[in-house]
Amino acid sequence: MTIVFLHLSKKNFSASIAYGIQSLVIVLFFLNSFFETNNLAILLVVFLMLIVKVILAPLFFIRLIKKNALAFSVSTYLNTPLTIISIAILTFIAHYQKFSPLTSIVPANQDSLSLALSAMFLSLFLIINRKGALSQILGVLSLENSIVAFVIFAGLEQNPALQIGIMFNIGIWILIATIFMSMILKHFGTLNVSSMNNLKG
Amino acid sequence: MEILFIFTTIIITIAISIFVKRRSVIEFFSVLTALVVLFESGAIALKVSSVGNYTPFGLFSVDSLAVIILLVISFINLTVAIYSIAYLRQETAKNIIGFTRVRQYFTLLNTFLLAMILAIGANNPILAWISVEATTLSTAFLISFYNKPSAIEGAWKYLIINSVGLLLGFFGTMLYFTAVKFPDESGLIDWQLLLNSASQLNPVVAKIAFVFVLVGYGTKVGLAPMHTWKPDAYSKAPNPIGALLSGALLPIAFMIILKFKRITDAAVGQGFSQHLLIVFGLLSIVIAALIMFNALNYKRLLAYSSIENAGVMALGFGFGGMGALAAILHLIYHSLVKGAMFFSSGNLLLKYSSARIANIKGATNVAPITSTLFIVGFLVVTGVPPFGIFLTKMQILSAGIESYPLISIIALFFTLLVFVGFLKHTLAMFFGEKPKGIEVGENNIWLILPPILLLTSIIILSFYIPSFLSALINDASVIYK
Questions:
Q1: How many domains does chain B have?
Q2: pLDDT tens for residues B230-278?
Q3: Could you tell me if B37 and B5 are in contact, meaning their C-beta atoms sit under 8 angstroms apart?
Q4: Is residue A98 less than 8 Å (CB to CB) from chain B?
Q5: Could you say which residues from 99 to 118 on chain A have a Cβ atom under 8 Å away from some Cβ of chain B?
Q6: Binary contact (B156, A151; C-beta < 8 A)
Q7: Tens digit of each residue's pLDDT (9 = 90 or more) over A104-142
Q8: Average pLDDT in the B194-202 region?
Q9: Is residue A39 pLDDT above 80, yes or no?
Q10: Biggest alpha carbon distance in chain A?
């Protein structure tokens, strides 16, 4: 739902909040996994995710939006009706029979795995369809959340080294992407990536 | 513990680059570190060639292919460190950069080196993934080093495309993990465990996983159609960084693809991964050849050449057998020659203050040694006899001619087209009348020595390969056939 909202949202602020909510849902999945397994490493991951993805990252973005008065996000390559049609098609594809070997890794979670797969497709589409740098960053982070959701539903989340590694990586990634957004704003005066057309030949 | 010595030295140099305010100290330690890394890599290579895999601790292990790449990277890094000092001094003299930028450069350069070495030796696919992602993050700032709009644009493209690619690679990695029952609390899954568990992998999941991994790490390699970041990033990064991106990062990402290929092959047989590599390889050669012909910028030309050569390597591993052996040799030759070409093109950039091919005329009269180095590099990289790349290209194509005659013929045609396209630009740049106002003479001996060193080594390696290296190449070609 949050990814569909990210597609339809016209405001950067609400998009950042949607990302925070999406991350919170992933944290809740992990929390559930902790209650099932009593694996303390998963609890550590829950805390790390809560701090980095649910609190720090949306705050980073909101601060940037306020500082640079980026109230409205820039446009999409496809208009809203076409975007909705594309979302429907991608969701259908994710539930298509061809992907059943992936979605039946844990047969009990087949529907959830299909949803996670469609979330991955929609996140990729978000990165491609949006012209705003912030939307692209949210698309990458949303893709990461979708993959983590898939990993949880596939029962692979019990590897703590894996999760801590991702958290460390994503923490740094958010920081660097934010720095780059500031640089884009400074040089181009906008976050609209379609204004970047200096590279040719 | 050679590897601990390597890591410690690099970390100390990173700290020095951050905290010390004397340029000469930072430069000295960067070169010293490069020498230490090369020396220790040589020691590790000798060990691996005589006793097999080098595993100083659980998380770090290098096999024959990894140590070949470690050695190549260490060597290129030494030339990059030497060249960077002279190159950045020239840029400082021209008021292009100040001391703060120089400090940033050496900090990021050594961070990049550390991440690359970690990626090479990571005994765990997740650690390898994190290390490769770390290379993306450190190099993004190196690509935007000049802080111009076009550089920011190139770096942004690089960051987004590679991050998406690597996330897809991560998803593919996770799919491989479905074969493994989590063994203990630590939950660490190394390459060998994945390989041993390959028979437990659902064949369809294994195929999908390999597609994701190939697309993910293939983005980093620059295989078409995921290559679009490469010309932008290469053309905007400082020239020595271009040498590392092309000569060092490309083989690392390729090595990780090959590790997953082994696992996939164990699960579903060789045919699937080989066919995919052939498709991506041929596509890369064709696209690079067609674009190179109309390139406007000589740094972008080198980027397209890297795409073409990545395609040739993919074909080699796709054809397998003799093709794999030739692809490993091709990887070594390409890394060395691309370093030399980025250095000589950097010298041209310092002379002409332009990377546009149309602005470079009569370079042989302006900088004869640099021009000779670039022209020799062009002959080597396009596969003109008697240089090594000629032999490796021929070996790869002959490995494929029996099973895939049409693909081999198409690849041959487009590699010839690459030569013609490159020749056209080379003739335009190096001959004719020089523009007015361009000072005649070479820049600095330290800008000439690194490419000479690289070209000399590739010429030597074209005719003679030391026994320890030969043993490593043979062993790697058997493992990754």
A1: 1
A2: 999 999 899 999 999 998 899 999 999 999 999 999 999 888 999 999 9
A3: no
A4: no
A5: 101-102, 105
A6: no
A7: 888 888 888 888 898 899 899 888 887 777 788 888 888
A8: 89
A9: no
A10: 57
Confidence of residue A162 (pLDDT cuts 50, 70, 90): low
A44 versus A74: the higher-pLDDT residue is A44
The two three-digit tokens of residue B39, written as one number? 């020396």
pLDDT(B185) > 50: no
Of B141, B182, B202, the CB nearest to A159: B182
Instruction: Give the nearest chain A residue to B201 (CA atoms).
Output: A105
| Residues B174, A150: C-beta atoms closer than 8 Å | yes
- Residue A132 has φ and ψ, to the nearest 5°, of -85, 140
Chain A residues with beta carbon closer than 8 angstroms to that of B164: 124, 127, 140, 143
**Four-residue CA torsion sign, B311, B315, B318, B322:** negative
Chain B nearest C-alpha distance from A194 (Å): 10
SS3 track for chain B: CHHHHHHHHHHHHHHHHHHCCCHHHHHHHHHHHHHHHHHHHHHHHHHHHHHCCEEEECCEEECHHHHHHHHHHHHHHHHHHHHHHHHHHHHHHCCCCCHHHHHHHHHHHHHHHHHHHHHHHECCHHHHHHHHHHHHHHHHHHHCCCCCHHHHHHHHHHHHHHHHHHHHHHHHHHHHHCCCCCCCCCCCCCHHHHHHCHHHCCHHHHHHHHHHHHHHHHHHHCCCCCCCHHHHHHHHCCHHHHHHHHHHHHHHHHHHHHHHHHHHHHHHCHHHHHHHHHHHHHHHHHHHHHHHHCCCEHHHHHHHHHHHHHHHHHHHHHHCCHHHHHHHHHHHHHHHHHHHHHHHHHHHHHHHCCCEHHHCCCHHHHCHHHHHHHHHHHHHHCCCCCCHHHHHHHHHHHHHHCCCHHHHHHHHHHHHHHHHHHHHHHHHHHCCCCCCCCCCCCCCHHHHHHHHHHHHHHHHHHHCCCHHHHHHHHHHHHHCC
> What global pTM score does this model have?
0.92
Residue of chain B whose alpha carbon sits nearest to that of A117: B171
Domain that holds residue B288: 2-479
| Stronger pLDDT, B129 or A198, i.e. the higher one | B129
Q: Give B187's contacts in chain A (Cβ within 8 Å).
A: 158-162
Confidence (pLDDT) at A133: 78
**B325-348 residue pLDDT tens:** 999 999 999 999 999 999 999 999
Instruction: For residue A158, give the chain B residue with the closest CA.
Output: B187
What residues does B62 pair with on adjacent strands? B54
The token duo for B127 is 């650690």
pLDDT higher for B15 or A133? B15
Write the DSSP symbol of residue B199: G
Quote ipTM for the complex: 0.88
Q: Please state, for a pLDDT cut of 70, what percent of chain A lies above it.
A: 84
Closest Cβ opposite residue B178 in set A156, A160, A198: A156
**Residue of A143, A156, A158 with shortest CB distance to B164:** A143
Give B157's pLDDT tier (boundaries 50, 70, 90). confident
Q: What percent of chain A has pLDDT over 90?
A: 0
